[in-house]
Amino acid sequence: MPIVFSKSALLEIDVQNDFCLHGALAITDGDGVIPPLNDTARSFAEHGAPVIATQDWHPAKHCSFVSSGGTWPPHCVQGSQGAELHPALDKNPLSLILRKGFRPDMDSYSAFFENDRKTPTGLAGYLKSLGRETVYIGGLATDYCVLYSALDAVALGFRTLVFADSVRGVNIPEGSVVKAFVSMKAAGITII
Ligand code: VGL
Ligand code: ZN
After folding, report:
1. What residue ranges of the chain have pLDDT lower than 70?
2. 102, 59 contact by CB (below 8 A)
3. Which one of 6, 77, 162, 179 has the minimum C-beta count within 10 Å?
4. What confidence score (pLDDT) does residue 61 get?
């Protein structure tokens, strides 16, 4: 199906240094999402459609870090090089950069809600006020931030599509990438 640019938006989830090669929470071939996302983003921008990049944006003592009793190595610390969007990601097509996970005591996988599933990031309001009905998603990681963003998007009533060639997963625990695709399809999300 052709993309209806007047009703669509592109979400580029957490394409940050820490999730790419040599990063603190490096995802296998994380950098591989960048060329296809750049192509898609340029096309959206040429057609006047919004492109949103998200950043995982944690304070130095964040509850998701092992050092604070969480599960992840410290990553995407506010102001660090690891938290920056990858240098190869084209920033020119971006209409908005949205930061999440900035509260010390709450993690946020989804671009729409913090992990309490209630505290909004503001993204739904942004997309709705721009008349967007369809959301296209790529980025990192398939089994965490992409998964939760896509599930929230569809639950909020957006037609939701995920670019299979533009996502990569952590796959911790083993099998979580396959599981993520299964739950996205079951929720009515289209994998393209
Ligand atoms: C993510 C783990 C911890 C992600 C963020 O972007 O998928 N994963 N924080
Ligand atoms: Zn994080």
Report:
1. none
2. yes
3. 6
4. 97
Q: Is 128 a catalytic residue?
A: no
Ligand 1 pocket member 144 (CB < 6 A) = yes
Q: What residue ranges do the domains of the chain occupy?
A: 5-15+25-54+89-96+104-191
CA of 106 to the centre of ligand 1 (A): 13
Report d(CA 88, CA 82) in Å as an integer: 14
Q: From atom 4 of ligand 1, which residue's Cα is the shortest distance away?
A: 145
Atom 2 in ligand 1: which residue has the minimum CA distance? 144
The CATH number of the domain covering residues in 5-15+25-54+89-96+104-191: 3.40.50.850
At 15 the three-state DSSP class reads coil
Q: What digits encode the pLDDT tens for the residues 46-56?
A: 999 999 999 99
Average pLDDT, the chain: 97
Element (H or E) spanning 13, and its range? strand 8-13
Indicate if the alpha-carbon torsion angle 5, 154, 52, 39 is positive or negative. negative
Omega before 186 within 30 of 0, i.e. cis: no
- DSSP-assigned letter for residue 111: S
Q: Which atom of ligand 1 is nearest to the CA of 19?
A: 6
